[in-house]
From TrEMBL, chains A, B, C, D:
The species this protein was found in: Microbulbifer elongatus
CDD domains: ASS
Gene, per the UniProt record: argG
Name of the protein: Argininosuccinate synthase
Sequence ranges assigned to domain Arginosuccinate synthase C-terminal in this UniProt record: 179-397
UniProt main location, coarse: cytoplasm
Length: 406, 406, 406, 406
């Protein structure tokens, strides 16, 4: 590694990344640029400014990226009905490429030669940040303090704070939680603590965004979601910006106990890990998108999307948002969405979301053909015989030659 | 078609198939063998005997196929976490190959040269019955009365009954429902009636197997499901036969409002169709199987299964259970399941099923490595740098050559 | 079927389709519009005019579709390195959607209510014509005489000619071959005759487009093919139109004994069939396209293309060119091709084509990194350790838990 | 890394690995066990014994692994018609897991705590050796000298020999080639030298196993290959062991100029690399296996295999032979092969191999159905209409609703 003059740090304003500021200054003798983003994590970002200033940072970036996050990352991902390992809605994964992109943009603006982040060496996030950074600026250097330093316990971090006179209120004592958490407009996640025992049930007071189904209202909430080109644009007839729409869905879902998930997942770095997630709005969006697609997408297009989806989800989970193969898949997915328009009516009730109605100008549902009643010749039942006979031909030939299936 | 002497009919004892008995006798001048199976549809099958006798049938088969159904069809399918179009648990589809197999076995035993069924020419079931039959006995002839006759309304059927003196109590008047229904141990389905309008919500009194989430108990039910080789074998420590286990899960799920589904699906014959389903036990099984796999399966095996699943689901939906390609996929799926052993703890509550704990002698979850605490060197965080650097190499080279991802 | 007033027939001018003209006139009492296309089959199309006139046809379409064929069908297909069942370059399959499209355009222009073609009821071509037609004009009617009439032998056809005074020189006696042949700019195919015995070797005098490797020149021919956006645009520096380029490659390949193929393939209608093919230019194009992609495409994009290709090939083989799923796949394929620019040097010699050199402004081949010599730090070999260690982690954990791979 | 007492080295007897013996002894102060395998590389392995002894090695393993190599690695791989990136027959890749397995077996027998190999830090082979080793013995340590030492040029190696009195005739001067080569029963490969410029044609005198097509006999050679369960068992009626059979095919292929390949491939470590390969026998086997499958495999099984193949090839290329996902795929592939029996007749001529005939007791080719002549009702052409109509239904509905494909 050549000498580093200036580094852009993804800075939350919390204890860990505040320590990193000082550690970077001391270890690399370099200038630190901080970057703090509002991606809907639910905390004020402006206070990060004073903290950074107190640490001697001169170039401070504080951005509201909520609309960009939902419009350019969350919505494109939901066009594919994306789920990792059958369960996980990729709430953390999808935010990382946006951070990586912004880190590189700021490095370009400020002439920095490195970026840094507070992700550990065991997790997926380091991979997502760094793959993105390298893909967007191949000569960039990356400093991952958690892989370099020996401050690998809370005690050592606190000691470091004292030694370096980093104000301890940076440590957000009030919020101190036994869990490692991550939040953005799409979800909040919990890892660590008692969750490290996969047999142990998560405690009720861990969950922050949703009431328990037990505590949800006794009456269902009905909403209508409107789609254009595969993206939701309105709730109950009210057009909303992407971030506002997702925020509102989070409220509606959370109030009805929707979107809790408790899984063991496979990390890209090779280990299994227990995680709990709350994704109220995302859970609704997945259900709604499938419902609007169910009447507007061609069957084979829908099936092709289903077969490509696990691979697309894996790309995002593993940190390859910024890759030509993700863009190639996205081209296919997006190509399919121009007909995905219409409305879905949803019932939210005590932890469940159901699609109870769907309609569209672009509907391919043909009541005249599908009906159990007389269809006036729209469909000739006799066609089915030839259809079956020829689909069976290869099976009949094989059976006739003695091939045995049982 | 050559002359038909004897035909085996899948006979429910209801109005439609009773008409078919007489129509076959009259139209083909052939002997009719009836076959009635208990696959858990929840109706007595023995009464079919007297009805068949009254219609002059001499060879009457009445079989209890519940254990075979769950053991050899439902469980193998759930090993793949099978879902069609992201939602449907294939309750109807998976029963058809068993019926087809039994029809052919009976044809072989009785020397029949044809089989017959009461499925319409618009649906998937005709395809499933007939593909199975042709695959198992290539020279068999198939009579599908609904594609041949002109009795295409209830009135004409009733008229036919009168003309041919078929007792009208065959028509099960009490049960007359506005929906076309199908049931077996895995599910009950509803089509037709008001459901033909996809925007219309299903009426509450349509559902038969589950209480509404609203009406479910206010306290959650916890159960522990034990797996061996990918199949569930015990509930709360009590070993149960496949059918008994599924039956119990249906009760547990139904009582907690679990397993309702309302979708528009794509039929193999080319049209979209609205269907509502109740699959209480199956919904629990899907969640539980994913949970036990989450700690026992290798990551890449799990991902491979996820990528193959949509194709496997489509094969079953389209009627290709009895095909060499399904058997080839099954070989891969089954090969992965010998390690899928252990226990899953589940919470059932007002329409939702959540996995809250999982444990196994075969667990690959390694708390020593996954921990957020000091791992005593079990994992070297510095390895991550090389991992990321080489995974990024192709991206860095491309970016260095000016390829632009944004 | 409702009454038919006017039908557009894909008319070759040969015996079979001439009989069809008269048979349509007689059987349906309708007007026949003939459509004859030059797609490079190597026969004059203009003579079809007089023949059609002689049969009383008033609206006669004769089109030169060679450029459209290569530009809009052959080239897009080769962007995917398309091969069916590992061997077949889809020469027949890819011409059919163009014919179907033109039949429908002419039906629209002439106000015809039906189309007709001379493909038999056993083959793939009927499916390709008709799926295309239905997809482009859903209300169109299709008349497939070979599925309807009983003129199913040469003798009956000749007899029909006599009865209906169809000039027998329509039967192209000179060219009478024991094989059923099809030709266009991409290939010529042979079926039937002795080929119906898959153990019998094709006779040397069957092949028409290529010399035998034995008869090819003793010195290799070298050519350089230039690509832009995934399509070939020049040979040895000479820019050529798509059709001209393919024509020239056919000559070069044919002269060097390149592109013969003898296979048993699986038809969509369910049977296996023996076919022999000559695809001289296409064989060269496949090799060249892979070679130019090998230095310009990202690895994961290339692999994704390889995994999608069999499905894409199957779509084309089965007749689904005009389908939303083919267009979705095409979007992904085309998205990958903007970087596929550069030159490939090829050696043609006695039946073989080899890529011996490739270069491109868009090359991702990085000699500084790939070199066996000192790379001046372009690649840090120590990165490989972490890369391997983390890729092995899941395997090490599993082995540590006693999982056995041997 | 803990202290190493004994290391098993994959030892060729050449200069590089001889230097490694001494370097390991000096650097780690450990005992070295050498392992030299005959996998058909065409060099005597016995001389390695004296060289190892001269270096003070006490435990020397020299194994003839040729039969195991072909039977348990090459043949299973060819059952899948495996090709990497459309061209490469994986000759190097498939030998590595066998070496890894044997290294671990010897480590277990000798109580060694580490293995070592002579692969560089830039290539795929280090990955293949090490992934295999970790997967089979998770606690094993790996020493990869090329990633650790600074002897990264021929001069430094020679200097090291002098300093450490390693006899310089170990360097195989006679064979000194400008290329980096690797050979085994399946192939010989060439990298480096002028090949590092992808535009430069490989020189004729580089190739060692095959005559040039120009120099091949003017008359074709015909052979018949017999298959059982997907593996070749006899040539021209003579049953041969796996290794003997492949050896003979190499001679036949090489004599006819078959199996040369010149490509740029994508390495797992992220770079593109030029390689030339001679795989005479393997090229024949690929053609022959596809041919025997073409008449014995069900269509959908064949297509499923084709879709899975690229992923299977990638696993082997990347070093994941010893992985549960490869074994899962192998289970599917092997399940399909019990019917792959019969004979293929092949023509070898001046660089080309063609299948000219194929026959089998298990053939699904049905001449009665496929025939262009009268089939006596074996196939009802009228079935095709219904087949096409229903396959077109979704397309017709979409077109009827105004969806536009052009």
């Amino acid at each position: 590694m050549s000498k580093i003059d200036k580094v852009v740090l993804a800075y939350s304003g919390g204890l860990d990344t505040s320590v990193i500021v000082r550690w970077l200054q001391d270890t690399y003798g370099c200038e630190v640029v901080t970057f703090t983003a509002d991606i809907g994590q639910g905390e004020e970002v402006e206070p990060a400014r004073a903290k950074a200033e107190a640490l001697g940072v001169k170039e401070i970036y504080i951005d509201d990226l909520r609309e960009e996050f939902v419009r350019d990352f969350v919505f494109p991902m939901f066009r594919a009905n994306t789920i990792y390992e059958g369960e996980y809605l990729l709430g953390t994964s999808i935010a990382r490429p946006l951070i990586a992109k912004r880190l590189i943009e700021i490095a370009n603006e400020t002439g920095a030669d490195a970026i840094s982040h507070g992700a550990t060496g065991k997790g997926n996030d380091q991979v997502r940040f760094e793959l993105g950074a390298y893909a967007l600026k191949p000569g960039i250097q990356v400093i991952a303090p958690w892989r370099e330093w020996d401050l690998n316990s809370r005690e050592k971090l606190m000691q470091y704070c004292e030694q370096h006179k980093i104000p301890v209120d940076f440590s957000n004592k009030k919020k101190k939680s036994p869990y490692s958490m991550d939040a953005n407009l799409l979800h909040i996640s919990y890892e660590g603590g008692v969750l490290e025992e996969p047999w142990a049930e998560a405690e009720e007071d861990m969950w922050r965004w949703s009431v328990s189904p037990e505590a949800a209202p006794d009456k269902p909430t009905y909403i209508t979601l409107q789609y254009e080109n595969g993206d939701p644009v309105a709730i109950d007839g009210e057009r909303l910006s992407p971030a506002t729409l997702l925020e509102k869905l989070n409220k509606l879902g959370g109030a009805n106990g929707i979107g809790r998930l408790d899984i063991v997942e496979n990390r890209y770095v090779g280990m299994k890990s227990r995680g709990c997630y709350e994704t109220p709005g995302g859970t609704i969006l997945l259900k709604a998108h499938r419902a609007i697609e169910s009447i507007t997408l061609d069957r084979e297009v829908a099936h092709l999307k289903d077969e490509l989806m696990p691979r697309y989800a894996k790309l995002i989970y593993n940190g390859y948002w910024w890759s030509p193969e993700r863009e190639m898949l996205q081209a296919a997915i997006d190509q399919s969405q121009s007909v995905v328009n219409g409305e879905v009516r949803l019932k939210l009730y005590k932890g469940s979301v159901s699609a109870v109605g769907r309609r569209s100008e672009d509907s391919l549902f043909d009541e005249k053909i599908a009906t159990f009643e007389d269809d006036a010749g729209a469909y000739d039942q006799k066609d089915a015989e030839g259809f079956i006979k020829l689909n069976a031909l290869r099976l009949r030939i094989a059976a006739g030659k003695g091939r045995d299936l049982i």
